[in-house]
User: Fold this.
Amino acid sequence: MSNTVWIANDTGLLNYRPAEKYGTIKVLTYRHTANVFQLHEVARVMRRALAHMQRDDWILVAGALMFSVIACAVQLKKFGRLRVLLWHAKENTYWPR
Assistant:
C-alpha cells in the first residue's frame, strides 16, 4: 500500500507536487472552508478523516498552523510518533522530519 501525504490546510497558494514522491496527496481542509475560530469542529473533521491514516503516512505542514498542530496531535496519539514534511525554500522541496 502506498503512503499518503495529508495536507492539513490547503490555501491554494503552494505547490505540493514535490511532496508526491512521499505518497498520494490528500487534503484535509481547504482555504475558506474551515474556520480557524472553530477548532473543535476542525478537530472533529480531521479525526474522522485521519481514522484511515497509516503508520508510515506523512503530514505536510501548510496553511493555518493550528490545523497542522491538530493533525500532528492525531498522528502522535494514534502512532506515538510524528512524520512531517516541511518546506525547504533553499532546496525548493519538502524535507521529511
The first strand starts at residue 4 and ends at 7. The helical segments are 39-49, 65-79. The CA atoms of residues 84 and 94 lie 9 Å apart.
